[in-house]
Amino acid sequence: MPPKILLTGNILNNGYMHARYLRKYGVTADSLNVDYKHCQGQPEWAEVEFSEPVAEENPDWSQYDLKGFRRPDWFFDVAFNELASLASRLTGAPSPPPRTKSAAQTAVEMGYRVAEKVLSTPLAPAVRAISRLRAKAREVAISSSDAHFIQSICDDFRAAYPGAEKALCTADVLEWLDRARGYGAVMRLYDLAHCLSLDPIYAMLGASTAPFIAYEHGTMREFPFEDSARGRLYALSLKKAARVLITNADCNRSAERLGLTNYRFIPHIIDDDLFQPDDSPLRRELLAQTGAEFILVAPARHHWKNFPQGLEHSWSKRNDVMIRGLGRLFSERPNLRVLVIMFEWGREVELSKALIAECGFADRVKWVPICSKPMLKKYYNACDLVLDQFNDGIGTFGAVVPESFACAKPVMLNYKEELHHWCFPVLPPVVTARSDSEVTQRLTELLQNPGQMVELGREGRRWFERHHSSRRVIDILIDTYADVLGYDPTSKPAARPQSVQAGVAPYGDFR
To answer: What is the Cα–Cα distance from 371 to 400, expressed in whole angstroms?
Structure first.
């Protein structure tokens, strides 16, 4: 019988999109999303072109025209307290009765919820502090079986990281154990859990006898080195994972620092059924409206000045480098007819607008709301060049580069070739700029030679088809699953046409 795979976590729709393509190629895969309501982690964001702005957090999809899209029945979007019912539904067992709580427990949880609402942002440190206090209180009442399990996890950490400055302790494990067991009730129903982001912690603690894969998408840069329960547990889960899949080329440095031997590179999954070169009425409309000759698209979120402590590299896109480079370009060549498209998402949009005004080219920028993937495709196809991130501390790329290449558009970013030789046999044909002066220089060269931009886009499309296609990603996943579970993947199924709407329930009935 073919194995059943559960993908947990859905940041940027990675879990959903992997499951959709795995199913397209004949693999039984479900996607689990728990308490994550950012618009970019919802299937509608991947599938529907919206003409109106969409709420970035917790959008009410019933208020939007979904153009007939219905969620597939293999995507489970649930609250944490619904996981037990989901597990019962998947097994056909009666739903468990609601958990009863003591008056003291109810009071503690009410205080926890109030703290989440009242304390100033960012909430995460305060919430973790409260969680640690609750874990400390539980230490005195844990069962002997729990105590044995917790001690084994602490011992595993000590063996895995004997030189760690701070050992994993009982309070660390208790901080995550209840939530992990909620996840574990569902994970144990599958042959393999493919865990995105920090979800390997839940697999390690909640489904400890089942194999799991850890999937990195920026999470390995800082998180495993935090002086926190989260950091220590995530570091241990990476060691205990059957495989670690790394999507960001620079994160092999974290893998080596952690002493991992179970990792391999995998490209980001890109919806290449959607992202393709296409005719662009939008381009004609924008050129007619603005009188521009060239269009530049800058889709990176606006995070470049202030970030949570320890997450400087993962958060920062260094939009300021791009903005200052554009400012110098327009100052040196005031007659350039160039339109710059930017997107209103990220915490520092207003800072970017202020810097653009300071640099003197606000009249050349068109701001548009954060775009769903089908709408973003239209902007890619409308432009001459895409501007990605310019963070010198990263030097690699996520989805923007391959999405642009899939649409045959060239991309400029801060790119470090030396980080990527372990990832690709042929490096991507990106345009590299590591400073604002280099942004100005490279843009000047390209705008003087538009034919070069067209050829770079074509070259990028060829590179994408050979080294970054969805089929390439799925082949790596199938090989990895087969290696972990011990079955023969040599006869990979051919792509079979399958609508994402096959076997789905009407919106509202998908839980």
So the answer is: 13
